[in-house]
Amino acid sequence: MKVTYRKMWESHMVPLINSQWNLQACQKELPKHLGVGYRNSAMVSRHAHVETYYSEEDMERETRYGYKMFSEHAGALAELSLKRVEEGFHISSSMYDKELSSCSDEELLTLMIEILRWSKVLMGLYHTTQPQCLELVRKEFVAFLEGKAGDPTQAFIDLTAPTTPSILKQQELDWAKIVEEKDETAVKKFYLKYRFLGTDEGFPPTSLEEHEKRFKEGKRTEVTGNDFTDIKKEQERLIKEYAIPENIQELAKTVQEFSHIRLEVRHGWVSFEWANRHVMEELGRRYGLTLRQIENHIKEEIIAMVKEGKRVPEEELARRDELFIGFLKDGEFGFKVGKEAKDFIKRNELEKELDMTELKGQIASKGYAKGRATVIKADRDTMAEIVKMKKGDILIATQTKPLFMPAIEKAAAIVTDEGGITGHAAIVSREFGVPCLIATQHATKIFKDGDLIEVDANTGIVRKL
Questions:
Q1: Considering the entire predicted model, what is its pTM?
Q2: What is the phi/psi pair of residue 73, to 5°?
Q3: Strands (E), 308-361
């Protein structure tokens, strides 16, 4: 039976071994929480820049099971997620800081296997907060508000807006306090707590020395956005005015809570990515491989290299770097390279030409803005692209991440290909009070740098003028 795929995510620095554990998390760990996992998915990688596709059938099933999960087990899932993040973060930090030169090859393999296990555990929890898992929650909200609220979508946005700081906001607040109180003893603690925040896509953690330098120079991060007072008052007003029942209020609190939990879990699995890079660099050094070369193995190949002396030819590793597809087919992981990968893309219609000037997205934060587009993709040139962002530009991205904060602070509006109401763009746009459309699917392919565009986040439309 033909599988229909939908592009959902785009990321940088996802070599083959990361693709393997990511897909296996969807297959093996996600069902422990959701009750169902993915059977057909594909990750198309060119030089570690990945586009991820899920099957329509898997997403429809995930939507149904997601509603049941959040309606019946949200509290237990939230508790488990935060517990695993706390446990995992201590483990990943110790592995990242570990001196590896004295470890045997077998000990390095043991570390790698444990890191990959934890990566899958946290990615499985992360996938419970995918946009499709919360789609029926959103629909139930809007259906209840239809006929009661003049603008049901805005009421939903207001009621589900978090009323406490996200980990991103808390990082700003904590650093501002350290600088204000001139508390040099708190710098190292701050560094250890937040060093992996915003470091996915291969951007390295900032060093303790960099933080100490910032402290001595008195540099503080500007605390942006609101203090949540207005959000809380508006939520109280809506609950009273529309007589919102307890079950709907609980769903609102669930969305609020998992908006923050999603960022916490992401921070957790990113920390294991860095722990694994640490181990991979040491293994690569011993076996004459670059970091990219050894990361373009699957786990079983690395084990065979160490235990049996079996090597993947360097020409094959170069082909994988140029193009590979990691996939789940009927629940089983596999990968293809070269012509087989190209045939897979063509046969499943994964990459299509687009001819349009207007897109519709999901409203994450209402408002209107007009300005020049700045397109920022998560790749090796991300930092250069962030620098080119000017005050009043419209930020166009596949998805926003903590790394994007300097650009977000300048944005008149945010438009993303991907994301859901618990995603990074939705959270920060509401914290900053800027218009935001998410899940447009194609914004980064339709709009180019310098295009004059209009973002109507009241109707959900973004168009080129």
A1: 0.88
A2: -130, 20
A3: 324-329, 332-337, 358-360
